[in-house]
Write a structure and sequence with these properties.
The structure holds four protein chains of four kinds. Chain A has ten helices and 13 strands. In chain A, β1, α2 and β2 form a beta-alpha-beta unit. Chain A is α/β, with parallel strands linked by helices. Chain A is elongated and about 85 Å long. By secondary structure, chain B is mostly helical. Chain B folds into two domains: about 60 residues; about 220 residues, MetI-like (MetI-like fold). Chain B is about 75% helix and about 5% strand. Chain B has twelve helices and two strands. Chain B has a two-stranded antiparallel sheet. In chain B, a hairpin with a 5-residue loop joins β1 and β2. Chain C is globular and about 55 Å long. In chain C, the strands form two sheets. Chain C has a seven-stranded mixed beta sheet with strand order 1-12-11-5-10-9-8, with helices on both faces. In chain C, strands 2, 3, 4, 6 and 7 form a five-stranded antiparallel beta sheet that branches. Chain C contains eleven helices and twelve strands. By secondary structure, chain C is an alpha/beta fold. Chain C has a domain of about 180 residues: 3-Layer(aba) Sandwich (Rossmann fold). By secondary structure, chain D is mostly helical. In chain D, α3 crosses α6, α6 crosses α8 and α7 packs antiparallel against α8. The chains are: A alpha/beta, B mainly alpha, C alpha/beta, D mainly alpha. The interface between B and D is large, with 81 and 85 residues. Chain D: It is a multi-pass membrane protein.
């Protein structure tokens, strides 16, 4: 009994000593600043990759990037719980965001295209046709010149940035009828690829051989068409800060906006850089010409 | 005489001294009670949290409870013709119930059959193969179930039953496999609780093994078996990720088993990241969570009721 | 048969009873109950039990099922505390142990108990006996070994198990297991040993071995045993109490109870015309 | 009598069929997961860090995170669940309060885990300022796990016969000593099974972790075991994506070219780990039971 006590005591002392030793020898330089960015899952890979590069170059910093969805990102930045809110939408487009404090930093442009199952036999639709398909006025592909096959609509979840952009610019603000909803692009693509008659919409970077991207009014969904706004379905990706950023947050956002990221990571990940755009679009959809690609 | 009285007094002292055991008992009570208090605090916190957010839809956003429970349109972001937000949860409630009841209907014969096999027919193989197998099934993560559902069950349903493959039927198949182990192991427990001599008496009367199982063992275990089924239903009702991947998530009243539909959990998990805390859209989702919570309460009460009836018999 | 049925419902005093407490200077009273009542919830299971028990003697409690004898026995070391309300006094060597400030654990060390079904712990034979000792501060392997051996010898189990004390006790036969439970109880050197139908789950050979063991044990312990088996009571006990419907109807020396019962029901019961 | 015999044969036969089918379902499930996942497995896959958008990422960090998180969550939740189960089964009076507490615990266990995750997010991550960290994740998993574990331990206690308790009490032991020294050792195999099964569930849990332990896995320095360093595997304050979360993430938003391969490989790893848990549980349970029941 007493022997056991002795061993327990010695064990405890050793453990405490080990803890103190570990604390004393910790790398002070690495325990420096850290910031957290939360929000859009679509934007997460970009910010994460940029964060890794940044911390690699600036020892002593740590950038914690998490998903959770645009809604989560905006509500957390509004409450000041995190330093950066990643969003697919303008903050004022998101219901429930009231803060005037939020500062927008557009770090990328993402093009969105309708995708269909490869066997639908349709390559091109007009905006009217697309709207008719998603509002349910047309229910079979043969009505728009395709195979005789019922249309299966797959939406993104309500409140998703991709869906909001698609409805606003692809369907002229009409609302899609209630149909299947999926909460991620990967799922949407997989379902469209395997479900006959399916149609949905994803960012350019998700288009692959398994699905067909549709032309709209004869315009192909390409980056070149997005740059001069011939392809209208696109949106900015935003990093929001609560008030003007300071310290590490400011440095990091500047880094993401710098050519070091804009010319490499942003394009590798399938986005366009706002610097490439010939035009600028505000929250109301008003388009202004700007200088052109730098 | 005097000597005796002092010895009584000393015995009394010894008997009234707090022994080590008594001290340990107090310590044990305190320790275990505080653990319980901690759990209860957690439960109360979460339930209170869900309830306060869920009720906000009705108190802060002034949605009527009746509209919520009977409305068929779920578009919390949009106002209808009367300027009221569309928060009708009926289609999801129906979806949840349908999928739960259907999967329980399919799972019950399988689960009870397997439990009977494990317990009555081949206890040896039961212990060696079936029990580990069912326990393994419990352990497979629901994400994995979901992906198998998506890549196997959905195409299967599409080719056999038509439609897009997404819908209540696919969800039922996936949930069937998911609740099977729970119901099986609880049924096996119920059968194990039937005393040996019931079987022996019946077999001694010349009944066949099946007659014994059917007329004696299953009858005696009925309350336990019902508890197992209701419990499985409760699990099915709360399952989220796997169902969400195969049911299609369309907040529409289900017209057929192969049309996309939605359950409370699927809408809740899909939407929660895309809404802003405190907004109507977000509160409405919490109201769905509250419905889930209340349903879970109902299932529990049913289990308890069955248990009580079983005891009375 | 049930002559006294309506009489019993009236009052205790009206009952035909015959109680003679032991009075033998050689064997002073060590345990006595006074005005003991036991309630399960609101229903009263034991109306009155005023018995005195003589030191180093075996007292048998007999009676039909549900007569309250087990309830009475289990109340003696307060094993019923959680499920029943026990009122009255339990005088153990002059101290009332049915008081809230009595340390029941210390009391139960002095008043041990063995149950109807053998309940060896899922431990080795050695540990079954030794582990309560360890918890009560007995240390040192030598001392423990000695105590285990003595207890097992007293319970007449030593010769059968001495070579594999490390074996799990769950593998013992019913009779061996029951004797292990006795060894476990007496290892703590109790003063009084309560046995609740200890032989009811045993075969005749084990039963008679158990009886021999009890007869030896009474040299050191006071034994109170509940039994269904009247021959057993007659064989081993000095005193016998007859319980019926929650009451002690007759208490006297065993020879009196079995040869010359004063109460009609007792007579019916011991002659096998009852129940 | 002939009819009864025939009926008997048919019934027993169909019971064989049903049980066979259940086994078949599992074998098919496992086979599917393993056949599509095993070819992806390699030492590189199991040890390399994940890549955000390029080919050839592994799951080394995620695998480590899963185990670390599981161990932490179990360390926190097991003692609490054990204590609560002991109180509920051994001490609590059988009245409406106890019954209400049990019901409340049951209800918690049937809530979708995303609700628990969001609660954990608002409480641990935001309110207590633990951030997206292993610690937050471990607490959320504890919340998720407590009801299941408590219930399963209580069931285990129930399997130990009442006469063992009486035996302990009659030796003058307190209830606490009786439970600790007699009941728990006897219940160990069944408790262990419960623990391992719930460990399997925790290991595969994703929804509760997305908002608490986070869904990013910064590279770790496996040479640095000082828990105060941010890149140390042991640091409980770093964000930690687990394997299950990783599967969920690459299937939903993954843009690496080999997303599908990584997802099926990860599923196979997850299932193999759970298989190992199960076998370990059985083996350990038997060993432990033997150790505890004989000298």
């Amino acid at each position: 009994m007493t022997k056991k006590r002795w061993f327990q005591g010695i064990g405890l002392i050793l453990l405490v000593a080990l803890g103190v030793f570990a604390y004393q020898t910790r790398q002070v330089s690495h325990a420096g600043q850290s910031i957290t960015a939360v929000g859009s899952t679509a934007l997460q890979p970009l910010v994460e990759a940029a964060g890794e590069q940044y911390t690699g170059e600036h020892l002593g910093t740590f950038i914690n990037v998490q998903g959770g969805g645009t809604g989560t990102g905006l509500s957390q930045i509004q409450e000041g719980a995190v330093q950066i809110g990643n969003s697919d939408l303008f903050a004022s487009e998101q219901k429930g965001i009231t803060s005037k404090q939020l500062v927008d930093h557009r770090v990328a442009v993402v093009g969105i295209t309708p995708i269909v199952n490869r066997k639908n036999g349709v390559q091109n639709l007009t905006t009217q046709q697309l709207t008719a398909v998603f509002t349910g006025q047309v229910t079979n592909w043969k009505q728009v010149g395709g195979a005789d096959r019922p249309i299966v609509i797959i939406n993104r979840a309500q409140g998703s940035g991709t869906r909001a952009t698609f409805e606003k610019f692809g369907m002229n603000g009409h609302r899609s009828r209630t149909a299947q909803e999926q909460d991620s692009s990967g799922m949407v693509r997989q379902i469209v690829a395997t479900t006959p008659g399916a149609i949905s919409y994803v960012a350019f970077s998700y288009v692959d051989k398994t699905v067909d991207a549709l032309h709209l009014n004869g315009v192909a969904p390409t980056e070149a068409n997005v740059i001069d706004n011939h392809w209208k379905i696109w949106s900015y990706e935003h990093l929001y800060t609560n008030g003007q950023p300071t310290g590490l947050t400011k440095d990091f956002i500047a880094y993401v906006e710098s050519p070091a990221i804009q010319k490499t990571l942003v394009r590798q990940l399938g986005y366009l850089s706002p610097d490439q755009m010939h035009i600028e679009r505000d929250v109301t959809g008003k388009v202004t010409q700007i200088g052109g690609a730098r | 005489m005097k000597e005796q009285s002092t010895s009584v007094a000393s015995l009394e002292r010894q008997l009234k001294k707090h022994s080590k055991a008594a001290k340990l008992e107090v310590w044990g009570r305190v320790v275990s009670f505080s653990a319980l208090v901690l759990i209860v605090a957690v439960v109360v916190a979460i339930i209170g949290f869900v309830a306060s957010k869920g009720i906000a839809t009705f108190t802060t956003n002034h949605v009527s409870l009746w509209d919520f429970l009977t409305g068929k349109n779920w578009n919390p972001g949009i106002k209808d013709a009367h300027g009221k937000p569309e928060v009708g949860a009926l289609s999801m409630i129906v979806g949840s119930f349908l999928i739960t009841i259907l999967s329980a209907l399919i799972a019950t014969p399988f689960a009870i059959g397997t439990a009977v096999f494990m317990n009555e027919i081949s206890p040896n193989r039961g212990a060696k193969i079936l029990r580990p197998v069912t326990e393994l099934l419990v352990g497979i993560p629901s994400v994995v179930y979901g992906f198998i559902g998506l890549s196997v069950v959905v195409p299967f349903t599409r080719s056999v039953f038509g439609g897009s493959g997404f819908g209540i039927l696919s969800g039922t198949f996936v949930l069937f496999v998911m609740v099977l182990p729970t119901v099986t192991s609880m049924s096996a427990d119920a059968l194990r609780a039937v005393p040996r001599f019931y079987r022996e008496a019946s077999l001694a009367l010349g009944a066949t093994q099946w007659q014994t199982i059917y007329k004696v063992v299953l009858r005696a275990a009925t309350p336990g078996l019902m508890t197992a089924v209701v419990f499985g239903m409760a699990r099915a009702f709360g399952e989220a990720l796997a169902v969400q991947m195969v049911i299609g998530n369309a907040a529409l009243m289900p017209h057929s088993l192969v049309d996309p539909a939605a359950t409370l959990t699927s809408v809740l998990t899909t939407g929660i990241g895309n809404t802003v805390m405190g907004s109507l859209q977000n509160n409405a989702l919490w109201s769905l969570a509250l419905v889930l919570l209340l349903m879970s309460l109902v299932f529990n009460l049913i289990v308890r009721l069955i248990g009580r009836k079983g005891r009375l018999q | 048969m049930f002559v006294n049925n309506d009489v019993q419902t009236n009052a205790n005093d009206m009952l035909e009873r015959h109680i003679v407490q032991p009075n033998d200077p050689q064997h002073p009273i060590v345990l006595a109950t006074e005005d003991l009542h036991v309630f399960y919830g609101k229903s009263e299971a034991l109306f009155e039990g005023d018995l005195q028990f003589a030191q180093n003697q075996i007292t048998a409690l007999i009676g039909p099922s549900g007569s309250g004898k087990s309830t009475y026995l289990r109340s003696l070391n307060r094993m019923n505390d959680r499920i029943a309300t026990v009122k009255g006094r339990i005088m153990y060597r002059g101290v009332d142990v049915n008081q809230p400030d009595i340390d029941v654990y210390e009391m139960r060390r002095r008043i041990g108990m063995v149950f109807q079904r053998p309940n060896p712990f899922a431990k080795s034979i050695y540990d079954n006996v030794a582990f309560a000792l360890r918890l009560r501060g007995v240390t040192g392997k030598k001392k423990l070994d000695e105590l285990v051996e003595v207890s097992l010898r007293q319970a007449a189990l030593w010769d059968q198990v001495k070579d594999d004390l490390g074996r799990s006790a769950l593998g013992l036969s019913g009779g061996q297991a029951q004797r292990l439970c006795i060894a476990r109880a007496i290892a703590l050197k109790p003063d009084i040993l309560l046995l609740d139908e200890p032989a009811s789950a045993l075969d005749p050979v084990s039963t008679s071995q158990l009886e021999d063991t009890l007869l030896k044990l009474k040299e050191q312990y006071t034994i109170i045993i509940v039994t269904h088996n009247m021959q057993q009571a007659a064989r081993i006990s000095e005193y016998t109490a007859f319980f019926n419907q929650g009451r002690v109807l007759e208490y006297d020396t065993t020879s009196h109870i079995f040869t010359n019962p004063r109460v009609q029901i007792t007579s019916d019961y011991v002659s096998g015309n009852f129940g | 009598m002939h009819k009864a015999k025939l009926q008997n044969k048919i019934a027993i036969g169909s019971l064989y069929g049903i049980s066979g089918l259940v086994v078949l379902i599992l074998v098919a499930l496992l086979g599917y997961i393993l056949v599509s996942g095993l070819p992806q497995l390699s030492w590189h896959f199991l040890t390399a860090p994940a890549k955000a958008f390029l080919k050839g990422g592994g799951v080394g960090v995620q695998l480590f995170n899963s185990f670390y998180l599981l161990i932490l969550a179990m360390l926190i939740s097991f003692p609490i669940a054990l204590g609560a189960a002991i109180y509920l089964y051994e001490y609590a009076k059988d009245n409406w309060v106890t019954s209400a507490v049990r019901t409340a615990i049951e209800i918690l266990s049937s809530l979708p885990s995303v609700v628990v995750g969001l609660f954990g997010f608002l409480f641990f991550v935001v309110k207590l300022r633990l951030g997206f960290s292993i610690l937050s994740g471990a607490f959320a998993l504890t919340f998720f796990n407590l009801p299941l574990l408590t219930r399963s331990i209580e069931d285990s206690l129930r399997t130990v016969s009442e006469n063992q308790r009486e035996g302990g009490l009659a030796l003058g032991l307190s209830r606490w000593e009786t439970v600790n020294k007699i009941i728990l050792p006897a219940a160990v195999p069944s408790i262990l099974t419960g623990v391992i099964l719930s460990a399997g569930r925790v290991f595969g849990e994703a929804a509760a972790l997305i908002y608490t332990a986070g869904q990013s896995a910064p590279a770790l320095n496996f040479a640095d075991w000082n828990p105060f360093n941010i890149s140390s595997p042991l640091n409980p304050m770093r964000p930690a994506e687990t394997l299950a979360v990783h599967i969920w993430k690459i299937n939903s938003e993954g843009i690496m070219p080999d997303a599908k391969a990584i997802s099926s490989g990860s599923s196979a790893v997850l299932v193999i780990a759970i298989l190992l848990f199960n076998f370990a549980a059985r083996y350990l349970g038997k060993r432990l039971y033997k150790r505890l029941t004989s000298a």
